[in-house]
Amino acid sequence: MDGVQKLSFKAAKKWVENLRQHPCAWTIEHENRFIGELRFDAIDNHDRRARLATGIYNPEKLGNGLGREAIRIALQYAFTTMNLHRIALRVIDYNERAIRCYKSVGFVEEGRERETAFIKGEWCDDLIMGLLSHEFLTHN
């Protein structure tokens, strides 16, 4: 799958351990199988904000609404239980499927960072997207 690096067993084990130790991370499972992860990084309790990072790593599970469902559940938790006010994310500008998913749960594009990622020999832009608690809670 494009953008997903194959890991050695040792590296995969370390990745899983890091995910287990993360203060606010979950695995995404479907039919009792791991398909991805979701986490909130850079949690700032004073400003009540965090950054969403998520990925579905099984290409057969893309386009089935599983990522969208996981994101909605996590956002509900973030805005109610964690009492956050704002969630932001970054996404490569050519990842149209992810952008549609993020927009479908309420994220809006707030900006663009030009040429932030060097992928397959080309520079790509990152879109910056954000969602406020009242926007999400009003529509979900």
SSE inventory with pairings:
Blueprint: H1 9-21, E1 25-30, E2 33-44, E3 49-56, H2 66-80, E4 86-92, H3 96-104, E5 108-119, E6 122-132, H4 133-139
Parallel strand pairs: 3-4
Antiparallel strand pairs: 1-2, 2-3, 4-6, 5-6
* Strand fraction: 35-45%
Query: SS-based structural class?
Result: alpha+beta
Largest sheet: 6 strands, mixed
List segments where confidence is low: pLDDT < 50 over at least 5 consecutive residues.
none
**Helix/strand order, N-terminal first:** HEEEHEHEEH
Compute the CA-based radius of gyration.
15 Å
Count of strand segments: 6
Description of the structure:
The protein has 140 residues and is of the alpha+beta class. It is 31% helix and 40% strand. The protein has 4 helices and 6 strands; from the N terminus they run H-E-E-E-H-E-H-E-E-H. Strands 1-2-3-4-6-5 form a 6-stranded mixed sheet, with helices on both faces. The radius of gyration is 15 Å and the shape is globular. The model has no long low-confidence stretch (mean pLDDT 91).
Key words describing this protein structure:
140 residues, alpha+beta, six-stranded mixed sheet, 4 helices, 6 strands, 31% helix, globular
